[in-house]
Design a protein that fits this description.
- The chain has 137 residues and is an alpha+beta fold.
- The protein has three helices and five strands.
- The chain has helices spanning 53-61, 79-90, 116-121, and strands spanning 12-15, 18-23, 65-66, 99-102, 108-112.
- It has a three-stranded mixed beta sheet.
- The chain is elongated, with a radius of gyration of 26 Å.
Length: 137
């Protein structure tokens, strides 16, 4: 009777000594994990362009800049942080660079600067975040 091949042994991951129902990955000892590259590096172009702040604000106005692509964390700055950024602009303190990615259709997406650029574009603080101070009588 010929030997029938045996299926490989499957190891289950454990958390706090309890099986998770998830198959544990196996790697050859000492070998670094193989890195999948879902992109073709020959198709990636990096261009450095100088944009004025006015150019970036105009791109927001005309809809050619997407401020919140799916990989962004959302707007999280509090009013005090926004105020300090506006103060820096008024004092002409240099701001960190803004980073954009351009897709094949020419649409620009914000990669870094989501907190800064919208704050400069529309520096208003929402009404509900204003604190009313009482003047003692």
């Amino acid at each position: 009777m010929p030997d029938t091949p045996q299926p490989p042994e499957i190891t289950e991951e454990h958390f706090l000594d309890t099986g998770t129902g998830v198959e544990a990955g196996t790697e050859a000892e000492g070998a670094p994990p193989e890195i999948d590259r879902p992109w073709n590096s020959e198709q990636i172009r990096v261009n450095t362009k100088q944009f004025s702040l006015r150019n970036a604000l105009d791109m927001i106005e005309d809809g050619s800049l997407e401020l919140a692509p799916g990989f962004q964390r959302g707007r999280v700055w509090k009013p005090g942080q926004k105020s300090r950024l506006i103060e820096s602009v008024l004092l002409q303190i240099p701001l960190p660079a803004l980073y954009f990615a351009e897709d094949t259709d020419g649409l620009m997406r914000m990669v870094d600067g989501l907190q800064r650029l919208p704050t400069i574009h529309d520096p208003k603080v929402p009404e509900k975040s204003h604190r009313r101070s009482r003047i003692p009588s």
